[in-house]
Amino acid sequence: MSAAPLLNVQHLQKWFPVGRGRLQAVAGVSFTIARSEVLGLVGESGSGKTTVGRTVLRVYEPDGGRIELDGTDIAHLTQRALKPYRRRMQLVFQDPFGSLNPRMTIAQAVGEPLLIQGIAKGRAQRRERVGELLALVGLPQEAKDRYPHEFSGGQRQRIGIARALAAGPELLIADEPVSALDVSIQAQVVNLLLDLRRRLGLAMLFIAHDLAVVEHVADRIAVMYLGRIVEVAESRELCRHPLHPYTEALLSAVPVPEPGAKTARIVLEGEVPSPVNPPSGCVFRNRCRYAVPDCAKIVPELREASPGHWKACIRDGIL
Fold it and tell me: In 3D, which of 183, 164, 38 has the Cα closest to residue 112?
């Protein structure tokens, strides 16, 4: 029997008020993350990826569903009851510039979780632990007494990762952690996260829009479109044999790192529908080149099309 997952999200929903209506940012999303596993969550801007991550952390309050951390549903715990669980799940922000308080030294910023959680007693203990965390992410000890503006974007992201690790989490939610960085720095930060995963046994929800990066990082990949997960599979399987038309289109846009090699680019027609008024049936049908009349009538459930490979599409077979 397989071990119970560290994180088990079932039928997660999140709505936001918009004028006189409501926008459904997350529409019944379900997924699991095992201990020490990295699950990649990909999709276009506006697909709901970041909202999923922040709702799992209870930064946003869920409007439905379950968020089970190690078997305990934390979706509706009071803030007081939630505090020990917050220590076990931490967020790495997308923006390394905006996520650090410019008036706090690095020792203060990285040490803040230690103070809040009561992990290190006294200033000397906190400074010692901050030094250990900075060394863990490849920064020198003298960084402790400097301010965020004195560091590059890549260094700031390392500081953000050190802060996320301060409370000793089991799960990191990395929200587009390299998208704001120069291409030359992105690989360094990705490799750092993978190294930390191996050394600390971290599980991770790695949110991104770049499938090439996610394939390198993740054990499995979940693809989101308009608030729904439309495909989930082991990373190599999903990238080699996509079963959903949206995944197929995303993969066609990934550059091939071979001189002279060409791929048939699939250009999606039309605009992404508004989540305030999504299409009937399959939310992807108005951009899908394989759509049939039943696509407007049937809301496809995420089902296992082959062992370990799930898709939300009424069509059978491989693309």
Answer: 164
Nearest to 246 by CA among 228, 275, 221, 225: 225
30 domain-assigned: yes
- The answer to whether residue 1 scores a pLDDT higher than 50 is no
CA distances from 272 to 1, 184, 264 (A): 41, 31, 22
Answer yes or no: is 173 within a domain.
yes
Residue 210 lies in a domain: yes
94 in a structural domain: no
Token output for 103 = 């008036």
- Rounded to 5 degrees, φ, ψ at 252 are -65, -20
For residue 221, what are the domain limits?
7-88+169-311
Q: Which residue has the tokens 């979706």?
A: 75
Q: Record the tokens describing residue 259, joined without a space.
A: 């001189």
pLDDT in tens, 215-250: 999 999 999 999 999 999 999 999 999 999 999 999
* pTM of the shown model: 0.92
Give the CATH number of the domain where residue 59 resides.
3.40.50.300
Measured between alpha carbons, how far is 169 from 296 in angstroms, rounded to an integer? 43
The count of structural domains within the chain is 1
**Burial code of 64-102, b = ≥16 C-beta within 10 A, e = fewer?**
ebebbbeeeebbebeeeeeeebbbbbbbbbbbbeebbee
pLDDT digits (tens, 9 = 90+) for 112-141: 999 988 888 788 999 999 999 999 999 999
Distance CA 27, CA 62 (A): 11
Question: Does residue 201 register a pLDDT over 50?
Answer: yes
